[in-house]
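Query form — protein Murein transglycosylase

QUESTION: What is the three-dimensional structure of this chain?
INPUT:
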Amino acid sequence: MFFRHVRLVALAVTGGLFISGAALAAPCGDSSGGYEAWKPAMAAEAKAAGVGDRGIAALMGTSYASKTIAADRNQKSFKYSLEKFMQVRGADTIVAQGRKRKARDAGFYAQLEKNYGVPAGVLLAIHGMETGFGGFMGDSNVVSAIATLAYDCRRSDFFTGHLIAALKLVDRGVIGPGTIGAKHGEVGHTQFLPGNILRYGVDGNGDGRVDLNNIADALSSTANFLAQKGWRPGAGYQQGEPNFAVIKEWNAATVYQQAIAIIGQRIDG
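ANSWER: The structure tokens for Murein transglycosylase are given below.
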């Protein structure tokens, strides 16, 4: 539900191909007025970037997501003090539930740490912070949300790459034109933006597909993301410790980074 994964200004949308929002020519806008005229221009750019017929059709079927724009301009909680942020986000509840989940599925989390080096507390802190352990994974059309943010001038460069990725995910059947996610187009238990699904998504349950609405896939993908960003197995992750820099890659807000570190440590004990 919040702006996250800020490192993908230019993301790999196919093997070896990098698409930057700045390289795309479709004009941005500051209101809904130009959105319908923007779609065919964006469709041409998407097609040139390798998006197929299904992805193009999904783009042309989108609607301007006014609730997404409202959410993007009203992220007040990131301005709270750490104490207030922890209170508002229910840190104590996340810790309690996280400990129970770690104990209940100890083998699963131990295997994730063996595979990726990331301890259970960090993954559970992210899972709890992002969606309340899957309790609320969003109420917005993913493709419309991402397309609206790509069209909107405020952060068009950042979200255009994720739009191309979303349309390629539609082509591949990973998401559909009607897939529901968070206000900024994030998907699943730990709220991956589309470009990050393409780049870091993992089939954690072995069914042959990446589905971020599946806990095993979502947490495996989250652990893979952190590992690929440089997580050092066994090193600390509090502020001033080596892995805190990797937590910064997950979210741009300082209070969010601090909260993940503190909650994760409390879960890990």
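ADDITIONAL NOTE: Residues 1-24 have pLDDT under 50 and may be disordered.
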